[in-house]
User: Fold these one by one.
Assistant:
Number 1:
Amino acid sequence: MTKSRPPDRPEPAPGATTRALIDIRIQDDILRARQASRTAASAIGFTTVDQTRLATVVSELTRNALVYAGGGVCRVLTRLTVQERSVMIEVEDQGPGIADVTGALTRGFSTGRGLGLGLAAVRKLMDDLVIETCPGRTLVRTGMTRRR
Ligand SMILES: Nc1ncnc2c1ncn2[C@@H]1O[C@H](COP(=O)(O)OP(=O)(O)O)[C@@H](O)[C@H]1O
Ligand SMILES: [Mg+2]
């Protein structure tokens, strides 16, 4: 059987539920994605502080997709296990890719007009961060996990 998922793409986290899928084309979509992340986080009992952290992360990642790739898609997923609850954010675009990932994760590094704090902040606020990138595709996947 052929797999529809390319081999370079991570499998969705086992047991994850997709809570929202937002196309990112215009500025307003960033607000919709932010709100979706808050709603999902609230639904599994995350504190308002964590909801705000997630909304910040979603802002940064979707803005990057919009600015550097002309748009993309944002997926908000949740996962509940006996011991943990997680919100995962995946932002994917079909832009030029990130040439220097290590640089991009460094505070103050920007190829645009930004402050270069976005990805560095995401790494700090979240529990894990994976960036898969090549010319034509960037996927940023990041998660926040809390004990139940
Ligand atoms: N989706 C993306 N596609 C291509 N390049 C990106 C993407 N996201 C981030 N980058 C690159 O990483 C750099 C750092 O991003 P970030 O930390 O958000 O800072 P800023 O957006 O302020 O420049 C950007 O300047 C850009 O070069
Ligand atoms: Mg940015």
Number 2:
Amino acid sequence: MRLTVLGSGGIKPTLDRAGSAYLVSAQGRHILLDAGPGALRWLLRTGVTTADLDGVCITHRHPDHCCELILLIELEDAMGRKAPLGLAGPAILDDYLTFFARWGRTESAPPPYPIERAVLPGDLEWSPFGISGRSVPHVENCVGFRIEVDGKTLVYPGDCGPSDVVVDMARGADMLVLECTLPEGVDHHGHLNSEQAAQIAERAGVGKLVLSHFSPNVDVDQAVAICRKRGIDALAAEDGLVVEV
Ligand SMILES: [Zn+2]
Ligand SMILES: [Zn+2]
């Protein structure tokens, strides 16, 4: 299983970090985790097209995680897609799609290809990806993803604060992608600084920690150093980073 970071930033745009989006690939199949601003543009650089995507997993309704979902759905319509597109995420996502259908697609809603909706939390199988969606504390209706392929496990909770729930869902994972929204020493409900991310990774006993979702005021090198000081195999996400799980 391979993780490609398409967007390692948060809600504040920067020139070098797009919004939250990750491409997960295995056995020639591809899924997106979140579809924040810049996701589809970054996807172009990977050689994987939107037509190659089997599904999209959205963690929550904040636009830095889902604003290009509508763009993707519309684009696939324009490109004449016939294959189904999986869409996994919390129930509140349906409000977003309904809004889109009402205001954005006056001609031919719903799209002419099937959208296979999976309302999570819950488990689903998008072969070869075994996906478990768990409720995550951030705002209401957030779902984090634990993805397993061939005995390897990738966990992406999306935005989250310090939580036993996140530790549980990440337990023993080969790779954990955690947000590092906050500068060191800053505590804010629903988000993590590097020390808090390190504590989660340490308690969960993960193989590798990828810090991501950086605000512009986070010292990224310092964040990684704080995690490594605890003996955690940590690295910083950057747009275009490719790592094998
Ligand atoms: Zn976010
Ligand atoms: Zn958020």
Number 3:
Amino acid sequence: MKISISIFFILLCFQLRAEVLSGKTIVIDPGHIGTSEWALVSKKYILTDEDQMITEGELTLELALVLSPLLKELGAEVFLTRSKLLPVADIKPEDGLSGDLKARYDYSISKKPQLFLSLHFDTIYKKDRAHYPNDSITQSAKVFITKDENALSFENSKELGQSITNEISSKLEIGIDERPGWWWDSDLHEDGVYGRELYLTKNFPDTTHALVEGFYYNQAQEVKNLVDPIKRSLRLKLLATAITNSVVQFFSD
Ligand SMILES: [Zn+2]
């Protein structure tokens, strides 16, 4: 009897966890495109000291492909703006990237999501050392949301953003980026959440959103993690778990 009651509670807990995101539509946008060809257009890449290229567009896609099944397992309907190392719009490198941003927006809004997550990583370059590892960065996470405090999505996006930076900080054991005035056009709120007029923040006045800058991918120690396939996969799994926990927390409140 005892055993069957235990099994019943295990199944009940599993069922409750499985349903926690049911009925929620989430769009994940893996930022940039990846591949050396596109990374040279966007300048979103770093070179290791051995001249190995690490592109932001590949990191964001790898993260999205780990995050998406975690959210689906909890019942969410999940859409990705891209699932390959290709632009979302039908563009060529010489066309520039603005068409691709618009295509990401158009696709995302067409899904009428409760949540829009754009995934990114950041860099800080040392003078004359553009695109190379920087050993003076304190590793930290931050989130950008709309700058418009009157937007319907502002408060929810701020709450979600704070939860994301706190979860990332705790799971990856890194800091929260809270340098006021670092970006000329940004307002710092609490817990590393900045209001900023980016295409994929300002155009979601009614939809809860977060543009997540997971960590600095040219921080010298992080570069060592990212060139090691096992450590790279572990870092991205921790990040995906942190974001999943925040999303669950957000919808549970
Ligand atoms: Zn980015």
